[in-house]
Amino acid sequence: MNKAAIVKIFAVLGEPTDNRPWRDYSGYGLTAADAPTLVELVADNSFVESEGADYWVPLHSWRALLHLMPAGLHELIGIFDVVAEDDWALDEIPTVVAAACDAALESVVGLCVG
Questions:
Q1: Distance (Å, rounded) from C-alpha 27 to C-alpha 5?
Q2: CA-CA distance, 20 to 23, in Å (whole number)?
C-alpha cells in the first residue's frame, strides 16, 4: 500500500481515546511490506503542524506496526531520537517494540553493546 493510501485511512481515524484498547488495524490490509512506510509516517514531523485529523497519523502508524512486528523493528528503533519528544510515542512505542519478542531483545542489546 502506498503512503498516500495509508495516510487517507489513518487521517479519518482521528484522536484515540485514552485508556481504551488499541484499534485492530489488521482489517486495513496492511502487511509486513508496509512496515517501512509506517515507520516513515511515524517519523514524519509534518503531521505535528497539522490542525486536522491527520495529526494522529503517526500514532496510528506505530499502533498498526504492533501486529506486523518484527517487520519494521530495526527502522523503528532507528528513529527513537526523532520521536523522543512525543509523550504518546514514549508511552506506546515500547509496547510495539516488545511485540517483536526475541527480535526486539537482540536489537536493543545490539544498541547497548554496539
A1: 14
A2: 9
What's the rounded Cα separation, in Å, for the pair 114 and 102?
Answer: 18
Judged by DSSP in three states, 112 sits in: helix
The cell for 74 is 530495526
What pLDDT digit, counting tens, does each position of 9-27 carry? 999 999 998 778 999 999 9
CA distances in angstroms from 2 to 39, 41, 87, 106, listed in the order given: 13, 11, 27, 30
**Whole-angstrom distance, CA of residue 23 vs CA of residue 16:** 9
Round to whole Å and give the CA distance between 15 and 53: 7
> What does DSSP assign to residue 15?
S
* Sites in the chain below the pLDDT cut of 70: 102-114
Q: Are 26 and 67 in contact (CB under 8 A)?
A: yes
